[in-house]
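Let us practice reading a record.
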Amino acid sequence: MRRLVLALSLCLMPLAALAGGLGDMTPAEKDAFRGEVRQYLLDNPEVILEALDVLQSRKAVAEQQADVDMVQANAPAIFEDAASWVGGNPQGSVTIVEFMDYRCGYCRKAYTEIEDLVKNDGDIRFVVKEFPILGDDSLISAKFAIAMRMVHGDAAYKAAHDALIALRGSPDVATLGRLAADLGYEAAEVMAKMESPEVSAVIQANRDLAGALNITGTPTFVIDTTMLRGYLPQADMQKIVDQARKG
């Protein structure tokens, strides 16, 4: 183990930073020391890979703890934000929060699986955070969904959310107007609300929260204190939900 630590140190740190330092050695002693280390690494190159595995494992643990700390520090904004739509079982023992973008291909891929997971489990509270990061069409879509909720309520938001996920064309004014009408809702007030300060404030709050959580892509999920950065198959999501439920 002592040799393993030494090898890792030599691979990843300047020699001057080694414990004990080389400053107290004579030039001849330094050359001898370096020669012995070099020969050891040539004779046992596998220790470098072993050391890197240890380093990677420690890095992963540190990143997981950092995520836990960020989630705990921002829990009210993540889980109890009144501006975000809540679906599934509002009294569910586990909450899944999704930061999503309607133009994100992996968000669309995850959509059906999350719907099935929430429905089949029956004990999941599901929160959606509008996080448009993929351009103007993403922003327009998010504004429309938020405005639908503000004007017409949660059922209207869910209907708009589902339709926007399936929308393949550009969400221009005419398209969104027809979409609202097709869903049975008055479009004029929604279209006007889209550019309101209240709608912009919701999006900005979600962006600020994403920044605090170091979220840069979609989909990103928060389950209890676990953060999932990217798409994960339904079965794997269920395992994380089960683990969170067990505490």
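A brief commentary: The radius of gyration is 26 Å.
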